[in-house]
């Protein structure tokens, strides 16, 4: 036990791509809530829990055992959730590929699973920040909010790691600080509305386990400013929703269209193409995203808009 850490060792009975499973939880290379030194290195995560903040360090031994150390008041909660986080509830063996590209990706990446972080708040804020802006813009805002309003990570975390701001901390952020972080009024309102009912929104995960993913997504969509896209982005990460397609995304229909039918398509057509994959449509999208496929580029890339200059 290092530096007073709580420790858990867990050996899954399935092939596990540790970095691949955790990758969706990371919001850009500079995310202050998640760090990794590279392939095969330990992965550090910082988050909120019902018991308080927690820092975890995850490392996979050559024999497949995952060793997890935890610090902070929420450490035990985080350690208890390790199997779910790493995809123990996922069932990729039930997936049937209907396109050669998807089949090839599934064959090459048997350890890629959908994990469940079991924590709505930590996924909701960055997902709202990613609404209708580039990833670069959203990740910059996320970094600034965490660094300036989140607490330092418990334990011996790498320098600069921070706990995501809690609902109370978010509600205390002055208007001009939101502007300084590059967050426009619409996204600010959605985050503040979520913060006001954050304790209720955690129930979405329970509903998803009890009644299915759509029930959890429906609860999230009751918050003004939380639509289908944002609810799906949260569901994919929090309860490992393998059928929650991010409808309304700027890039996904085009990438899926070129990869699976050889042309750009809209959301409605994409859902038709993915229909044979139900109830694992998002798993098919994930395989497309990690397959290495690159769609043709015909025009200039979208330029980020700096809301701090408005």
Question: Any overview of this molecule?
Answer:
Among the domains are: 6-94, TATA-Binding Protein, CATH 3.30.310; 120-238, Hypothetical protein, domain 2 (Endonuclease III, domain 1). The protein has a five-stranded antiparallel sheet. Helix 11 (203-211) runs antiparallel to helix 12 (213-220). It contains 16 helices and five strands. A hairpin with a 5-residue loop joins strand 4 and strand 5. The protein is α+β, with helices and mostly antiparallel strands and 310 residues long. Helix content is 42%, strand content 8%.
* 3D shape: globular
CATH H-tier superfamily of one domain: Hypothetical protein, domain 2
- Assign the structural class, choosing from mainly alpha, mainly beta, alpha/beta, alpha+beta, or little secondary structure: alpha+beta
What number is the mean pLDDT? 94
Radius of gyration: 19 Å
Instruction: Report the total helices.
Output: 16
> What fraction strand?
5-15%
Characterize the largest beta sheet: strand count, sense, and whether it forms a barrel: 5 strands, antiparallel
Helical content class: 40-55%
Which residue ranges are poorly predicted, with pLDDT under 50 across at least 5 consecutive positions?
none
The largest sheet has its strands arranged as: 1-5-4-3-2
* Gap between N and C termini: 50 Å
H/E element sequence:
EHEEEEHHHHHHHHHHHHHHH
- CATH architecture identity of one domain: Orthogonal Bundle
Annotation, overall tally of beta strands? 5
CATH class of one domain: Mainly Alpha
CATH T-level fold name of one domain: Endonuclease III, domain 1
């Amino acid at each position: 036990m290092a530096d007073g850490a709580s420790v858990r060792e867990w050996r899954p009975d399935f092939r596990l791509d540790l970095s691949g499973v955790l990758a969706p939880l990371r919001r850009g290379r500079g995310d202050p809530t998640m760090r990794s030194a590279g392939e095969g290195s330990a992965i550090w995560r910082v988050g909120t829990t019902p018991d308080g903040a927690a820092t975890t360090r995850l490392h996979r031994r050559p024999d497949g055992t995952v060793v997890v150390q935890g610090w902070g008041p929420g450490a035990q909660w985080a350690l208890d959730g390790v199997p779910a986080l790493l995809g123990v509830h996922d069932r990729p063996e039930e997936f049937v590929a209907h396109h050669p590209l998807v089949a090839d990706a599934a064959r090459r990446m048997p350890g890629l699973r959908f994990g469940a972080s079991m924590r709505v708040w930590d996924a909701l804020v960055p997902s709202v920040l990613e609404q209708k802006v580039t990833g670069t813009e959203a990740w910059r805002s996320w970094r600034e909010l965490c660094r300036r309003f989140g607490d330092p990570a418990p334990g011996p975390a790498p320098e600069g790691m921070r706990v995501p701001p809690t609902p109370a901390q978010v509600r205390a952020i002055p208007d001009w600080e939101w502007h300084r972080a590059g967050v426009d009024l619409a996204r600010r309102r959605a985050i503040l509305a979520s913060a006001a009912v954050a304790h209720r929104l955690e129930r979405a995960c329970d509903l998803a386990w009890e009644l299915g993913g759509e029930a959890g997504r429906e609860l999230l969509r009751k918050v003004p400013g939380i639509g289908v896209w944002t609810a799906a982005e949260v569901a994919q990460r929090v309860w490992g929703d393998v059928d929650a397609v991010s409808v309304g995304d700027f890039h996904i229909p085009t990438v899926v269209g070129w990869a699976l039918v050889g042309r750009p398509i809209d959301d409605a057509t994409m859902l038709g193409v993915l229909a044979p994959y139900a109830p694992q449509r998002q798993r098919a999208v994930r395989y497309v995203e990690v397959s290495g496929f690159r769609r043709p580029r015909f025009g200039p890339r979208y330029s980020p808009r700096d809301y701090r200059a408005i």
